[in-house]
Amino acid sequence: MKKYLQITITTLVLFGCEEKNETQSTWQIIERDILTPSCANCHIEGTAIMKQSGLDLSEGKAYDAMVGVQPKNTAAQNDGLFIVSNAGGMKGLGQSFLWEKINAHDREHYLADHPEYGQMMPPGENFLTDGQLKYVRAWIEAGAPESGVVAEETILADSNRYEPPPFTPLEPPEKGFQLHLGPFEVDSNFEREFFQYTDTKQTNDVFVNRVEIEMRKGSHHFILYSFVPGTSSDQLPNYEEARELRLKSGGLNFSTLRSMQHHQFFAGTQWPRLDYRLPPGVALRLPAEFGLDQNTHYVNRTDSVMTGEVYSNIHTVDESEVNHIAELFSMTNRDLTLPPKKVTTVKRTFRVDETTLFGQVFSHAHEKMTEFIVEIDGGPRDGEVIYWTDDWEHPPILNYDPPITLSAGEGLKLIATYDNPTDLTVRFGFASTDEMMILFGWYYK
User: Fold this and answer.
1) How many CB atoms lie within 10 A of CB 259?
2) Is residue 225 over pLDDT 60?
3) pTM for the whole structure
């Protein structure tokens, strides 16, 4: 009898060890280490927050409550979001309401563009760690599976946490020049967007390998534009004149829209702080014949006047340090015919005739665009999606380090989908009622 008991106890211990060492799926770790301690204490059956949101994150219920499920929030529903999308990749991330709610590093965008989404989570400034954010992102990009390991658990060791940065004027660069816009006022409950053409006072072309931007709280975006080669002096705006995009009445200023037709993107950000460096030996050429057109957009959803301000540092290097001059490009498909009352998907491939390295891409379209995809066409990465957005107003600007290398004959395939609810056929054009299909960015050979 004693011998039997001893064997039984040993077996139970062994079974316990085996169970303890069983590999946990990525989802199980998210539920155990992120949702349960940070979210489930509020999102649990019977609580006011659970009733308001409709989201029950109790153990064993969270997966079915989130993945492939539409949020209760009406604005998020109208934007086509799921609590967690299982589409995978950039598309899945862009369609996931959870990611919008927890991505603290994109806090300014969230607060400015989506106040109707409610507060960020966890509430207050109890942000998830960078490791937790990276782990959840990897899971969503892998299609949000319930089983299997799709992210390294070591990612969770990153305990850094986002802290809203205070506005601090930039020190001028050691080599290069600084631009300063403002301070300027933004009226209560108003979106102010304006352009101001600034003389950079450069007598020769300069080569730029780093751009820093620092903005006061409340900015939606800030962009620096040069002008396309061949733009005549009478097509350029006046220096230091604020050209408003929106009138006090809410309508658009068409004279400002006309000046935008000659723009060539140079740099920009939707975050309060940017420090972007091109790869070593690579630089953008900034022609001395043009200044830089500063474009700031602030969103003030408060009842008091807001103050905006922007500093930009343009860091330059000697031409002798430049091995590759990065060229700005625009892949434009003007062959757009969008029939009335229909959803239309348009595809266009742009091929390269020699080895080309792409370091940055971002899309441009108008309000009828519902999805913009860029795939690699040809070669060993054929069909790989390198860009996705469903946001026509504020598309992401993606930088690649290392750059994406395409060989001769390969290309980038643009796939854009448009929903035309009007009674008229829509074609390519500059008016807001027209459409566009453009991919901007830079490359070198």
Assistant:
1) 20
2) yes
3) 0.64
